[in-house]
């Protein structure tokens, strides 16, 4: 048995629910004002689902959230999905009318986005899943916040975000990214409203900042990569206020020059410092960060 209590500020406390269906039956535990188990045929007859705009899928054993299933939830503006019972979600259909979609550790492998729909989605939180390809996300043109932390995006093209002109926050932390390509010479990246960009805890060896067109970028997180330098193009980020750099392989000349530039611009070093410099030939600059001579 499970029950959900709605707490202040939208917090949800899961305590107990109704009897689970037999294991062979596909079901979902849906929470509006309370939690209840639904078999899939029962969804279409639920008056409660037809009248709600916010829904939490607290549990279940469904491996594919396809278009008919999503439509059975009604015309939602907010949908949050928690891990499915002992299973991962293979595909998840993103409906055009949603404004917020949160996929919490669902193991989702693929997002299904319609090619010609006018999407209203503002917030997509899909951290801690199994996504390998996000090339369809450029269709979500109203998107303002995108979190793809801790997926499996080993290689990524900036073209995946082409057309996301309203994007304010982009987080790609912990994906094992080795390269972010797709920058065409002479064509600048269009993310002009981006304020926060998190590329930390990947495996990046190079970063082509020269073609970034991020006039409003205030926070850039680069710690935990294998970067040696990012050239002199950081000076183009005129709105930059905070920069994280620790745990990389910075060239000492570049790092020293960059820290001086940051001090002159009053840009705050965030994300911590290097407590030790274990690599051969490494040194410490300013008592804060390690570099390689």
TrEMBL record:
Segment forming the signal sequence: 1-24
UniProt KW keywords: Leucine-rich repeat, Repeat, Signal
PROSITE patterns assigned: LRR
PANTHER family on file: IG(IMMUNOGLOBULIN) AND LRR(LEUCINE RICH REPEAT) DOMAINS, TIR DOMAIN-CONTAINING PROTEIN
Name by which UniProt lists this protein: Predicted protein
Source organism per UniProt: Culex quinquefasciatus
Lineage: Eukaryota, Metazoa, Ecdysozoa, Arthropoda, Hexapoda
């Amino acid at each position: 048995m499970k029950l959900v209590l709605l707490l202040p500020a939208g917090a949800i406390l899961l305590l107990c629910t109704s009897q689970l269906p037999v294991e062979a039956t596909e079901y979902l535990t849906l929470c509006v004002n309370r939690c209840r188990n639904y078999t899939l045929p029962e969804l279409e007859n639920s008056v409660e689902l037809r009248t709600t705009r916010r829904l939490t899928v607290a549990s279940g054993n469904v491996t594919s959230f396809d278009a008919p299933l999503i439509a059975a939830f009604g015309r939602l503006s907010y949908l949050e999905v928690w891990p499915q019972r002992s299973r991962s979600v293979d595909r998840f259909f993103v409906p055009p009318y949603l404004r917020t979609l949160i996929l919490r550790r669902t193991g989702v492998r693929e997002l299904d986005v319609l090619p010609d729909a006018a999407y209203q989605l503002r917030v997509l939180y899909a951290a801690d899943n199994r996504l390998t390809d996000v090339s369809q996300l450029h269709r979500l043109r109203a998107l303002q916040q995108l979190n793809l932390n801790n997926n499996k995006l080993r290689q990524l093209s900036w073209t995946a975000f082409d057309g996301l002109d309203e994007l304010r926050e982009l987080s790609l932390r912990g994906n094992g990214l080795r390269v972010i390509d797709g920058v065409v010479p002479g064509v600048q990246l269009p993310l002009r409203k981006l304020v926060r960009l998190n590329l930390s805890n990947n495996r990046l060896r190079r970063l082509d900042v020269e073609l970034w067109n991020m006039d409003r970028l205030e926070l850039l997180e680069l710690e935990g990569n294998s970067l040696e330098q990012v050239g002199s193009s950081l000076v183009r980020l005129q709105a930059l206020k905070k920069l994280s750099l620790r745990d990389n392989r910075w060239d000492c000349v570049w790092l020293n020059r960059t820290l001086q530039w940051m001090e002159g611009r009053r840009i705050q070093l965030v994300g911590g410092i290097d407590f030790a410099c274990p690599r051969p030939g490494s040194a410490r600059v300013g008592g804060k960060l390690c570099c390689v001579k």
